[in-house]
Amino acid sequence: MNRRTTLAAALTLTTGLVLAGCGDSAPKLKVADAYMPQPVTQDMAGAYFTVKNSGGTADKLTSVTSDLSKDISLHKTVGSKMEQVNSLPVPANGELVLGRGGSHLMFMGLKKKPAEGEKVTVELHFATAKPIKVEVPVKAATYAPKK
């Protein structure tokens, strides 16, 4: 082989290896520890969970849909103030934790008030990853998950 052929073969092999590695870096998301405290009224409810990303690329939770409400927003708490946000980051090889006093989902204008023991189906939408359906169990209003 001449020098040009050897160089072309080396570049092709290197490019193939680099591109093959790119596929492994996509977000790999799983949802754990989901719950919704039983709402006190039919006006609003909150939901909490953890999105675990075992992939090498970050993603963002951008929206949530559910039959329970048409008005579901993403919130974060800064100090003692709650703020609506357009997305919540899911870090590469990390977690997005939604919990009381921090980031959470806010359901407004519920179609019905879910009772303890029921499950609410939600679909989480991300900037990159495919949507994930989650069955969120309704817990007692005073429920606090074990750490």
TrEMBL record:
Keywords assigned by UniProt, alphabetized: Signal
A Pfam cross-reference name: PCuAC
UniProt keyword Signal present: yes
SUPFAM superfamilies, alphabetized: DR1885-like metal-binding protein (SSF110087)
The signal peptide, as residue positions, is 1-20
Tell me yes or no: is Signal among this UniProt entry's keywords: yes
The identity of this protein, by name, is Copper chaperone PCu(A)C
Organism of this sequence: Streptomyces kronopolitis
Organism lineage reads as: Bacteria, Bacillati, Actinomycetota, Actinomycetes, Kitasatosporales
